[in-house]
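User: Okay, second chain of the day. Same drill as before: sequence in, C-alpha cells out.
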Amino acid sequence: MQSYLEMIVAVLAAAAIALFVAAVVHRVNRRLGRRSRLMTELTDHAHRPFQAAATVLAIQFAVRFSTGYAVGTPWRRTLLHFLVLAVIASVAWLVAALLVVVEDTALARFRVDVPDNRHARRVRTQVVMLRRLTIAVIVILTLGVMLMTFPSVRGLGAGVLTSAGVAGVVAALAAQSLLGNVFAGLQLAFSDAVRLDDVVVVEGEWGRIEELTLSYVVVQIWDDRRLILPTSYFTSTPFQNWTRTEAAVLGTAEFDVDWAVPVQAMREELRRLVEGTELWDGRVCVLQVTDATGGTVRIRALVSAADAGSLWDLRCLVREHLVGWVRDQRPTAMPRVRTELGDARSDLPWQWVQPRRPARRPTDGEVPDDARLFGGSDDGDARSEAFVGPDEPVEARR
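Assistant: Same drill. C-alpha cells below.
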C-alpha cells in the first residue's frame, strides 16, 4: 500500500510541476506576444497541446521511476503502454498545433482585404491546402506509430510487407477517383490555375471560389447557391477565370437597332453615362458597330470595371440607359419591319428630316477613342500589343 501511495504522490507532483511550467511558458509567451506575431499565435494555438504533452510526459516518467519495485508485472506494463500511447497522441497534437502556428504566421503577412490581392489569395490557397495535407499525414503517422507499440502488430510487419505490392495495386484501383481528386487538388494549389475568392464561370454559372479542398471545390454562385465540384473537374474541363491575372474585367452590352441609328451620338451618350457613374474604372468605354445584316445594325458597347460585381451592375446600367435613350431621343433607330414607297428617284421623306441635335462629326481620317478597342489609349495600345502575333512585321505593331 505504501508503494502505491508513493506512486500516486509522485504522479500528482509531476503533473503539478508540468502544469506550473506550462503556465509560466504561457504567461511569458503572452507578454512576448505584444511584440511578436509568432508568440501571439503560439499563445492562442499551442498552449493546450503543450500543456497536455508536458503533463502526460511528466506522469509517464513519474510512474516509470516510482514503480521500480513492480518491474515485469502486467499492471505496470499496461499502465506504461497506455501512457506511451497518450504521449504519442499529445506530441502529435503539439506538432500539428505548431504547424498551424507557422502557417497562420505566414498568412498574416499577406492581406486579402486589399484591392490587389491576387498574390495573397494564391499564398492563402497553397497554405490552406498544405495545412490539410500535413494534418492528414500527422494523423496517419500517429496512428501507425501507436499501432507499432503493440507486439502483435509488429509481428505482422513481415507479412504486411510481403503483401504490400498486391494490396497497393488493389487499393490504387479502388481509390482511383479519390486519389485523382487529391492530386488534382495539389495541382490546383500550386499551379495557380484557381485560387480562393477567384471569380469563375463553371457549368454556365457565375460565382466565386469559396472553399478549396483536396477532394472538392465549393463555388458560391451569384444568387447565394453553392455548386460543389470535384477538384478533378478543374483539371479536365475548361472553365473561365475572370480574376486569373487581375480583378479588373471588360463586359459588353449589345443592341440590335435600325440602320437609322446615329452611331456617333449614341457613342457620346455612352461616354456621358459612364463618366457620371462610380461603377466605371475609367479604362475602357468603346461603342462599335459589330454587324450589319438582316435589316438591323448590331451595336456593342464595351465597358470596364474594377471587379466582376461592379461590371455586372455597369452593364445593366448601360442597357437600361441606352434603351431609354433610343426610345425617347432616337425613336427612328428602334428596330422595325417597314415598307417604304418612294418616287422613281427613290427620294424618301425621312431622308430629309434634320436631327434634333446635330452629332459631332469627326474630321477626315479621325477615329474617336471611344470607337476603338485596340488603340486610342494606353490601355488600348497595350491590348493591341498583346494581340499581335510573333510573326507580325514590325510595321503591323505600329
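The first strand starts at residue 199 and ends at 202.

User: Thanks, on to the next one.
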